Automatic annotation (TrEMBL):
SUPFAM superfamilies: P-loop containing nucleoside triphosphate hydrolases, post-AAA+ oligomerization domain-like. Keywords: ATP-binding, Nucleotide-binding. InterPro entries: AAA_assoc_2 (IPR032423), AAA_ATPase_RarA/MGS1/WRNIP1 (IPR051314), ATPase_AAA_core (IPR003959), DNA_pol3_clamp-load_cplx_C (IPR008921), MgsA_C (IPR021886), P-loop_NTPase (IPR027417). Residues 10-65 form the ATPase AAA-type core domain. This is Putative ATPase. It comes from Kryptobacter tengchongensis.
Amino acid sequence: ETNLKYYSKRTILFIDEIHRFNKAQQSVLLNSVENGTIILIGATTENPSFEIISPLLSRCQIFVLEPLGVKELNTILERALTKDEILSKFKIHIEDRDLLFLYSGGDARIMLNALEIALKIVKPTPENEIFLTKEIISEAFQRRYFKYDKSGEEHYNLISAFIKSIRGSDPDAAVYWLARMLLAGEDPKFIARRLIILASEDIGNAEPYALTLATSCFTAVDYVGMPEARIILAQVATYLASCPKSNSAYIAIEEAIEDAQKYPELPVPLHLRNAPTKLLKELGYGRDYKYSHDFPEHFVEQQFLPDELKNKIYYRPTELGREKILKERLENLWSKRKQNKKVNK
């Protein structure tokens, strides 16, 4: 404030890892940012949408720093090999730089740390030469720590990629993202729970066995634990990815919930009501209800929805997998579905 008042200069405040500030600490900055006392520059490795309070975020400009490209990584590597106090003492031969760049994921620190580990694995020759083969580079990266925050953005990115790969019927991508999560230390039971949800939401009655298998997967994973649980998860993930897909059940319940919220007090039709007493029977409860098992094929067409929704169709089976059989059966049973079939032709 003194700089601004007497020298007409604003103070630049740089906060590294700003996501570590809690909400109360971030709120303290608001007034100074808003009145122009400070120019706030914050750096974070997390998603600011999740970690920075909305009032502060709305007053800031977001700049996304992308991973370094091959050209930039190569420049940094050359600088390290020629100017670093220790590395410059050796003549280092790297068999496959592209592999080094690929494993680094565009992060120069990861690349340099892996290089340091590699140099500890290999002993220099009498001529002070060091040869880093593909195998040495791979081993160096395997020894490094996998960056993975179970409550952070990458956690949600990986499980999202995994689920979407299964939904998209790509077992190869599914098993890759599964491997990424397991290597990073993800809880296998968390993955198994998500498979149970997916089995109903994205496969449903196109392959009803998917839900049984996914549920068994959770039990098996709970029984055996890691590392063997990886095999069970891979089996189920690849099976679910290979199954025919249908979200008809998911759509049905969503539309039914919408109508239930819109019409929360529609009366149950009299013939469907429970009539345990003489009085209720006299009032017409249960009257004219037709017991399905008394009719051919154990079915008789009657109204089960309230009058206002009597022709509503929530469940619309697809033509895929076993759901096709259900669709044909329902169209043969219900006149409203027969009519709907004619309209859609």
